[in-house]
Amino acid sequence: MGEVREFKEPKPYSRERLEEALYFLLQMRRNYIERKDFIFNMNAFLNSARSVTWVLKKEFAHNPSLKAWYSQKEDEMKEDKFMSFFVKLRNVSVKEKTPGHKVSLKWAYAIPVSGKLDAFGYSENKVSGDEKETGSILVLPTRDKNGMHGKPKLITPTYSLVTGWEFDEAPKGYAIKDILGLCAIYYDKL
Known about the structure:
45% helix; elongated; single chain; two-stranded antiparallel sheet; 16% strand; alpha+beta; 2 domains; 5 helices; 5 strands
């Protein structure tokens, strides 16, 4: 009888680490309104995402052509202010504390859009911070078939709380501080 040999397929650990980072990014999105869950998953994302390049470097250290390619990419990443921002965040997260952030809750309203089922338009100018106007009625202009102003439509908006997560500072060259958005950009760069 023939001998049975076990064949082990090489496992790309760097790809697994990238998938792990995506998992935590999706958990952040899924737990956006749960403070502790969001923070724990953010810290896990920062750690997993940062380790992708380290694992890649170690995994392919024996391959000279990949080593040369990675050396060039490493120089590019060191010059990239966005990537450096996340290296700093990961170091703070692992070695000191959760990176500086803030969460905000605001009242926002949604207005049903005529002619479209289950569609809503959002208005920035009605976000009023910590309080909402419960008795407000909005007047929406309408148009008749000739494009002229028709009879105004009166509606009562639907209110909901909107959660926002932001880092205390934005990476250089970026105006936004939104944690989930910036983490998604970082993941995409990896």
